[in-house]
């Protein structure tokens, strides 16, 4: 049994204050403990002034200790390891492939099978946008390799708990989080 067979991905969701330096402080904690961040997605949450981060980290031990340490950071409002919970997880990819008049219809057919969208068509290339589980994206990428992938970008996993459960319960007395002065909100 190799050391790599012990490594388990953990999906961590954090609700954090939308301020400069937060991502750096959180990533440093993972690095200090020797965890590799496999993917990271950050965006605004349903609460003004707060962002939601989804981390996928590889760990040969339980990530619980780092989650507890991160929960102590002043910028972290709430954090949760949802690895063993019932979640819906997706990622998005844009794949630019070489195309010609003869291969274009084959690529379009392949995109339709994966319920992907063609978002750009050039004289000798196409960009395909696909959303789904990691395995779906991996399969599409593998099949598109036959057409020569020019460029590929993936978002990393985003996740939510299934049903009416929420990863970060709403407080009865809701605090309003002010955006850091001068911070852009695009």
What's this entry about, in short?
With 186 residues, this protein is of the alpha+beta class. It is 23% helix and 38% strand. The radius of gyration is 19 Å and the shape is elongated.
- Structural class, from helix and strand content? alpha+beta
What's the number of extended β-strand segments? Answer: 9
Helix share bin: 10-25%
Provide the CATH architecture of the largest domain: 2-Layer Sandwich
Share in β-strands? 35-45%
Q: Work out the count of structural domains.
A: 2
Radius of gyration from CA coordinates: 19 Å
Task: Assign the CATH superfamily of the largest domain.
Answer: ACT domain
Largest β sheet strand count, sense and barrel closure: 5 strands, antiparallel
What's the CATH first level of the largest domain? Alpha Beta
Helical stretch tally: 4
CATH fold call of the largest domain: Alpha-Beta Plaits
Can you put this structure into words, describing what you see?
- The chain is of the alpha+beta class and 186 residues long.
- It has 2 domains: 82 residues, 2-Layer Sandwich (Alpha-Beta Plaits); 71 residues, Alpha-Beta Plaits (2-Layer Sandwich).
- 23% of the residues lie in helices and 38% in strands.
- It is built from 4 helices and 9 strands.
- Strands 5, 6, 7, 8 and 9 form a 5-stranded antiparallel β-sheet that branches. Strands 2-3-1-4 form a 4-stranded antiparallel β-sheet, covered by helices on one side.
- Strand 6 and strand 7 form a beta hairpin.
- The mean pLDDT is 85.
């Amino acid at each position: 049994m190799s050391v790599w067979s012990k490594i388990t991905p953990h999906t961590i969701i954090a609700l954090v204050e939308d301020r400069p330096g937060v991502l750096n402080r959180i990533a440093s904690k993972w690095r200090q403990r020797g965890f590799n961040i496999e993917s990271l997605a950050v965006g605004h949450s349903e609460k003004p002034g707060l962002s939601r981060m989804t981390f996928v980290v590889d760990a040969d031990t339980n990530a619980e200790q780092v989650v507890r340490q991160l929960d102590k950071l002043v910028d972290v409002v709430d954090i949760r390891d949802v690895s063993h919970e019932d979640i819906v997880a997706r990622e998005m990819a844009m794949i630019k492939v070489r195309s010609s008049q003869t291969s274009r219809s084959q690529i379009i057919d392949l995109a339709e099978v994966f319920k992907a969208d063609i978002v750009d068509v050039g004289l000798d290339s196409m960009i395909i946008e696909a959303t789904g589980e990691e395995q779906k994206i991996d399969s599409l990428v593998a099949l598109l390799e036959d057409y020569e992938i020019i460029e590929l970008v993936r978002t990393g996993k985003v996740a939510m708990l299934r049903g009416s459960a929420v990863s970060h319960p709403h407080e009865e007395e809701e605090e309003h989080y002010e955006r850091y002065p001068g911070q852009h909100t695009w």
